[in-house]
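Task: sequence design from structure.
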């Protein structure tokens, strides 16, 4: 057996001491910040005992982080749209050239008809003097007519293509303007938030501790929090695919009166469905309010609250679309851009047509602990 080297003993003692320090629970916000290490991104910092000024600073810092991500997404979207715009401009030149050539050919055809050249062919047809000659000439004449028809159709197609490209170019131009406006708005928001953060840090009694906490929260959100939140949205989206089948299995959940249908589901029914069939953790509960739906719960180090509402959408198809009104992660409210991104990425909508074809939602009503969906059969 090899002798235990003294240097190794020192290393082991150091590691043990480090583990003891890192696993000790310290309730004060200052002590939490002081224990920031390279592994802090994997442990969830708490906001329970923070003063309001520090909490607001952390919220603003997290918002800046998320807005920076949104700005990067919008800039990428802008680059894609600009590339598409330049390509459309090139295509438009080609389409214009093709149209000019097609117009010249179609002009020659029209001139031939207006100057009587085609009538002269008819006269020549009847002057052939023999049936076989007439048949041969007629076939030749038909080839000319078919060729004329192809030329005119080609011109029409080229014209339609050109108009389509012009419309697409105009739409892309409008899209670029909207993207530019959105990009500028987000940049303005970031500047305003950064200014507020700097002022808050300047007035803080322990700016360095607060700054460390801000870094720790942002790191935890980026490395753990966002992944977990997306996972819950993914579970909800997958559950909504099964929701129509679930409704059909519930006695009296769907009532019919002529062409009108009513779906009634209680808060408890929805929670049972999401927990038992959807796999949502039991700690997460849906609550119906007059304003919409509140989802809240905690799992491990994560606390999440989602507020939203359902609204009827007609395009691209009739649906009850879930709109995320707000997200609160571990006590910190996330910016609207994060809510919008998650809403776009995960479809939490309900499609009545999956129950009965041509069934369309008309309105959704929240009363007490019940959600009622009014539908109509549109044939």
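Answer:
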């Amino acid at each position: 057996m090899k002798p235990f080297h003294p240097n190794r003993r020192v290393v082991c003692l150091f590691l043990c001491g480090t583990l003891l320090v890192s696993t000790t629970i310290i309730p004060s916000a200052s002590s939490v910040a002081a224990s920031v290490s390279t592994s802090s991104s994997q442990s969830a910092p708490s906001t329970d005992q923070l003063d309001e000024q520090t909490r607001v600073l952390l919220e603003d810092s997290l918002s800046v982080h998320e807005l920076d991500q949104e700005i990067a997404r919008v800039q990428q979207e802008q680059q894609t749209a600009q590339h598409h715009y330049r390509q459309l401009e090139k295509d438009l030149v080609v389409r214009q050239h093709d149209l000019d050539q097609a117009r010249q050919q179609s002009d020659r055809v029209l001139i031939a008809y207006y100057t009587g050249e085609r009538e002269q062919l008819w006269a020549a047809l009847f002057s052939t003097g023999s049936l076989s000659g007439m048949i041969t000439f007629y076939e030749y004449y038909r080839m000319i007519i078919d060729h004329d028809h192809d030329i005119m159709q080609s011109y029409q197609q080229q014209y339609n293509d050109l108009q389509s490209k012009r419309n697409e170019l105009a739409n892309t131009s409008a899209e670029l303007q909207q993207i530019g406006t959105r990009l500028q708005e987000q940049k303005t928001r970031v500047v305003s938030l950064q200014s507020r953060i700097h002022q808050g840090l300047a007035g803080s009694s322990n700016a360095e501790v607060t700054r460390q906490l801000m870094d720790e929260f942002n790191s935890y959100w980026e490395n753990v929090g966002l992944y977990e939140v997306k996972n819950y949205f993914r579970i909800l989206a997958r559950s909504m695919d099964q929701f129509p089948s679930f409704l059909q299995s519930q006695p009296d959940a769907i009532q019919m009166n002529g062409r009108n249908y009513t779906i009634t589901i209680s808060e408890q029914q929805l929670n049972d469905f999401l927990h038992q069939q959807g796999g949502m953790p039991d700690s997460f509960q849906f609550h119906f309010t007059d304003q919409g739906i509140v989802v809240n719960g905690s799992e491990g180090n994560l606390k999440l609250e989602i507020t939203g509402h359902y609204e009827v959408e007609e395009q691209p198809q009739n649906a009850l679309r879930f709109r995320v009104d707000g997200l609160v992660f571990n006590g910190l409210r996330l910016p609207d851009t994060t809510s919008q991104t998650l809403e776009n990425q995960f479809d939490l909508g309900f499609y009545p047509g999956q129950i009965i074809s041509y069934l369309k939602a008309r309105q959704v009503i929240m009363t007490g602990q019940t959600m009622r969906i009014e539908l109509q059969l549109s044939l």
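Residues 115 and 179 are 54 Å apart (CA to CA).
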